[in-house]
Design goal:
Blueprint lengths: L1 H9 L1 E2 L7 E4 L2 E16 L2 E5 L4 E6 L6 E2 L4 E6 L1 H36 L5 H33 L2 E3 L4 E5 L7 E2 L4 E7 L2 E8 H4 L7 E4 L10 E13 L2 E7 L11 E17 L4 E3 L2 E8 L2 E12 L7 E6 L6 E4 L1
Length: 326
């Protein structure tokens, strides 16, 4: 009795409307995509290493900060370098005084040798002393330059433009040369997904996969382009890399839902304007020999074929039916 009552209620004659157009229902071949999850990954992750031994004096970044190439990340201080520099400064002052005295002796020796007041050997000795003092001053100044460069190397800079992923040190941490002060994700991101091997043959470099737009803050589906298909199979899965605009604003490691093409199937697709919803039930206007009737239908996913504005109808109409749009 309930089935008969439902059938009577379902086939209610539509009110008098002006019909804008009609549509003959036909099965169409559409993609039957498979939903998988992709992870936002970085193309490269590089370390910002310490170049000298010392203690972290200042730390200018934290996890998540965007950095430019060459931007200062941290400053490493080494008290030994400061003491060595102070010692060298004192030695340079002493060597300058010694060099000045040696050149003054050389000047007097040149005046005396012209009058044959000193011997040639004495002149050579004074000349050698002045040259040695000058060279000693140059050596000390070179050592000072080395110390100053080592102190300058205490500035840790970002190796490239990108985003800071990890900062494994804090102010006061003792670091050694080569130790990573920060890990920087280079500003180039991709989606890495794992696809069952039975579907791998349907993928190709340059092909498209569909990314859930809601996951990316968009109202519609976004296409991502396959950039790399790894040749190895692990646990029955193939790893695929794809690129899409806007994924650089996500956290590295965030999972996004994507659809990859698999097989084809037959489906009924109709434009949204042919479907009306009332009291939570979807209806279409079905044309028959007796008139136009409202028929309840079960809708599937919107945009099943990747064509905006179409709805898949799972039940309620058949191939060859004629639908009317008001």
């Amino acid at each position: 009795m309930k089935v008969v009552l439902f059938s009577v209620l379902a086939l209610v004659a539509a009110p008098s409307l002006v019909w804008a157009e009609d549509l003959t229902v036909k099965f169409r071949e559409v993609d039957d995509p498979k939903a998988v999850y992709a992870t936002v990954e970085t193309v490269d992750t590089v370390a910002a290493p310490a170049r000298i031994e010392g203690t972290i004096a200042t730390l200018s970044v934290k996890e998540g900060d965007a950095v430019e190439a060459g931007q200062e990340i941290a400053l490493i201080g080494d008290e030994k370098l400061a003491l060595q520099l102070k010692s060298l400064e004192a030695q340079i002052l002493a060597q300058k005084a010694q060099s000045s005295r040696a050149y003054a002796d050389l000047k007097r020796a040149k005046e005396l040798i012209s009058s044959s007041s000193i011997s040639k050997s004495e002149m050579d000795r004074v000349q050698a002393t002045a040259t040695s003092a000058a060279n000693g001053l140059k050596a000390l100044e070179a050592q000072r330059g080395v110390i100053e460069q080592q102190m300058a190397d205490g500035i840790v800079r970002a190796p490239s433009i990108g985003r800071v992923l990890q900062v494994p040190v804090t102010v006061g941490t003792v670091v050694m040369p080569g130790q990573a002060v920060a890990m920087v994700a280079v500003e180039s991101y991709l989606l890495r997904l794992r696809v069952p091997e039975r579907h791998a043959s349907l993928l190709k470099i340059g092909g498209k996969v569909r990314v859930d737009g809601s996951e990316m803050g968009a109202e519609s589906v976004t296409d991502a382009e396959i950039s790399l298909i790894y040749p190895g199979i692990e646990n029955g899965m193939v790893t695929v890399d794809a690129t899409a605009p806007g994924i650089g604003t996500f956290y590295v490691g965030k999972r996004l839902r994507v659809w990859v093409p698999t097989t084809k199937r037959s489906a009924i697709l109709v434009p949204e304007k042919f479907v009306t919803t009332r009291s939570g039930i979807d209806y279409v206007h079905l044309k028959s020999a007796d008139g136009v009737y409202e028929v309840p239908v079960q809708r599937g996913q919107t945009d099943a074929a990747g064509q905006t504005g179409e709805i898949e109808i799972l039940s309620g109409v058949r191939d060859g039916d004629v639908l009317m749009a008001p």
